[in-house]
Amino acid sequence: MLKRMALLSAAIAALFAAPAAVNAEERPAETYGMVVFLKGSEFFNWAYAGMIDAAKAIGPHVKTELHGPAEWDATLEARAIEQLVAKKVDGIIVTAGEANTLVPAINRAIRARIPVITFDSDAPASNRLCFVGTNNYQAGYEAGKAMGEWLGADARIGICTFPGPDHLKKRQDGFEAGLAEAAPGAKIVAVVNDEGDVAKAETQLTAMLQANKEINGIFGAHGNPGPGAAAAVRSLGLQGQVDIMAFDFGGPVIELIEKGEIRGTVGQNPYLMGYMSMFLAYAARHPTEVPSMFKDFGHIPTAGIDTGVRILDKETSAIYKNPPRF
């Protein structure tokens, strides 16, 4: 799967890069913005690195910008989109911190004929053109399947997540399905709300473990609960008794995997999300003589692109130890 995606990426890069190299000086400058709900996070830095590399492959006339709040706030994200619309940028790539909050801003961009590609977390009720990212239900399913294989029918799981984002709900639903299939008899004992914060995840998980002595596994549905779960397990002296499945491969998660405090993590491909999204935004910005499925925009897939996941452990997580910084 990853090999096929790499070949597809190379083919698309070649398609865009060839004319750009010939006519770079003749082409007017274009600006594309990426909007994230947690600026500075390692995950989104990987995505922006992919966007930058795709822009370079298209040509030197393509410039990129990174926008968004430093704290998880979809309202501020919406404001960032509106500012990019006011600047009349050529395209917007955005990950939705909340499924519905960004809909008016995204739709305003589309009405202004600015292509919008969502990645990582979708806003499916909006008029965005395409979604690039993880099949979040499948990602949760793979995590649940792995934990079921680790713990068997005796699995008693606590889940750490928070309500709102569409992708987190899909991950939880997939997790429950994967766990049930891999380990009939396994149970979800508790679900706690971490509000998207590591410290709150630790507090909530500590209380959960104290109230539910039978829990022997924790699933964190996004990047923050993993370190919070490890801290909670450590503070209660439960190392070796509670297995943790984290999400993503931020530095703290990789370090805790190496120490043996986190058993595994769901590895997405944020670099490929940014890379493919940039190509799609550019293609949408440049209609051909052949009408596309989208009025006013060029040819891009209507079904979206799944960038895949794999479960990472000590053996496979080391390559992500040096994330880009912006």
SSE layout and pairing:
Layout: H1 2-23, E1 30-35, H2 42-58, E2 62-67, H3 74-87, E3 91-94, H4 103-111, E4 116-119, E5 130-133, H5 136-151, E6 156-161, H6 166-182, E7 187-193, H7 198-211, E8 217-220, H8 225-235, E9 243-247, H9 251-259, E10 264-267, H10 270-285, E11 305-306, E12 310-312
Parallel strand pairs: 1-2, 1-3, 3-4, 4-5, 5-11, 6-7, 6-8, 8-9, 9-10
Antiparallel strand pairs: 10-12
Can you offer a commentary on this structure?
The chain has 326 residues and is an alpha/beta fold. It has helices at 2-23, 42-58, 74-87, 103-111, 136-151, 166-182, 198-211, 225-235, 251-259, 270-285; strands at residues 30-35, 62-67, 91-94, 116-119, 130-133, 156-161, 187-193, 217-220, 243-247, 264-267, 305-306, 310-312. The protein has two domains: 2-134 and 269-308, Rossmann fold, CATH 3.40.50; 137-267, Response regulator (Rossmann fold, 3-Layer(aba) Sandwich), CATH 3.40.50. It is built from ten helices and twelve strands. Helix 1 (2-23) packs across helix 2 (42-58), helix 1 crosses helix 10 and helix 7 (198-211) crosses helix 8. The longest helix has 22 residues, at 2-23. The chain starts with a helix and ends in a 14-residue tail after the last strand.
